[in-house]
C-alpha cells in the first residue's frame, strides 16, 4: 500500500511538473512569437486544403501515371498535409500564379500525396525512398509516364522569405517536364 501511494505521489508530481513546465513555456513566448503563431493559424485556415487522408493514394497515383503516359506528361507528386503551412502555401502559390499553373497544367499530372496522423501512406512513401524523412514537407517526387521516379525535390531550396521564389519554382518545373 505504501509503495502504491508513493508511486502515485511521484506520478502526480511528474504530471504537475510537466503541466507547469508547459504553461511556463507557453507564457514565456514573446509577444512577437504569439502574434506570429496567431497569424500563421489564420493564414492556414484561409488556404485551400488539397490533401485527402481518406484517398487511396496507390490507386490515385496509378491513374495519374496512366493519364500522364497518355498525355505525354510527367507526374508531379507534392507530398505533405493540410497541417503543413508550407505545403498549403506552395499549392496556393502554384494555383494563384497564372504562369506556374499553366506550366503545371501543360506538363504534369499534379497529385497531392497525404502524410498526416490520419494516413501516413507509409507503403507509398517507402516506394519513393521516404523523402519526407530526409527533406521534410512539402517534398516533390517526379515520375515519368511509366511511373518511374526520376527526381525528388527538397522544397526548402525553392523558398524565398515567407513564400516561394517564382524563378526557382519555374526552373524546377521546366527542368522536369516531359
Structure in words:
This protein has 178 residues and is α+β, with helices and mostly antiparallel strands. The chain has 2 domains: 2-46; 57-176, 3-Layer(aba) Sandwich (Glutaredoxin), CATH 3.40.30.10. It is built from 8 helices and 6 strands, in the order αααβααβααββββα. The strands form 2 sheets. A 4-stranded mixed beta sheet has the order 2-1-3-4. A hairpin with a 5-residue loop joins strand 3 and strand 4 (149-154). Helix 4 (85-96) packs across helix 5 (98-107) and helix 5 packs parallel to helix 8 (166-176). The radius of gyration is 21 Å and the shape is globular. It starts with a helix and ends with a helix.
Helices and strands in order, then pairings?
Blueprint: H1 2-27, H2 31-46, H3 57-71, E1 74-80, H4 85-96, H5 98-107, E2 108-114, H6 122-127, H7 131-135, E3 139-143, E4 149-154, E5 159-160, E6 163-164, H8 166-176
Parallel strand pairs: 1-2
Antiparallel strand pairs: 1-3, 3-4, 5-6
Helix pairs in contact: 4-5, 5-8
Overall pLDDT: 89
**What would CATH call the architecture of the largest domain?**
3-Layer(aba) Sandwich
- Rg from C-alpha positions? 21 Å
Largest sheet: 4 strands, mixed
SSE ordering: HHHEHHEHHEEEEH
Strand content: 15-25%
Reported by name, the CATH topology of the largest domain is Glutaredoxin
| Continuous helix count | 8
Strand order of the largest sheet: 2-1-3-4
Category by helix and strand content: alpha+beta
CA-CA gap between termini? 72 Å
What is the domain total for the residues?
Answer: 2
Q: What is the molecular shape? A: globular
Task: State the CATH superfamily name of the largest domain.
Answer: Glutaredoxin
Unreliable residue runs:
4-24
Number of strands: 6
Q: What is the percent of helical residues?
A: 55-70%
Under CATH at level 1, the class of the largest domain stands as Alpha Beta
Amino acid at each position: 500500500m505504501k509503495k502504491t501511494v508513493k508511486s502515485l505521489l511521484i506520478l502526480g508530481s511528474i504530471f504537475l511538473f510537466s503541466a507547469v513546465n508547459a504553461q511556463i513555456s507557453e507564457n514565456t513566448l514573446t509577444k512577437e512569437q504569439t502574434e506570429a503563431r496567431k497569424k500563421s493559424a489564420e493564414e492556414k485556415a484561409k488556404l485551400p486544403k488539397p490533401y485527402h487522408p481518406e484517398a487511396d493514394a496507390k490507386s490515385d497515383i496509378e491513374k495519374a501515371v496512366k493519364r500522364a503516359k497518355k498525355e505525354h506528361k510527367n507526374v508531379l507528386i507534392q507530398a505533405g498535409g493540410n497541417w503543413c503551412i508550407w505545403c498549403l502555401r506552395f499549392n496556393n502559390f502554384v494555383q494563384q500564379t497564372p504562369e506556374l499553373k499553366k506550366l503545371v497544367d501543360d506538363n504534369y499530372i499534379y497529385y497531392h500525396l497525404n502524410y498526416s496522423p490520419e494516413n501516413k501512406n507509409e507503403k507509398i512513401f517507402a516506394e519513393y525512398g521516404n523523402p519526407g524523412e530526409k527533406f521534410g514537407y512539402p517534398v516533390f517526387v517526379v515520375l515519368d509516364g511509366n511511373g518511374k521516379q526520376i527526381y525528388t525535390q527538397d522544397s526548402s531550396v525553392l523558398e524565398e522569405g515567407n513564400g516561394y521564389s517564382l524563378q526557382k519554382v519555374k526552373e524546377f518545373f521546366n527542368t522536369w517536364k516531359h
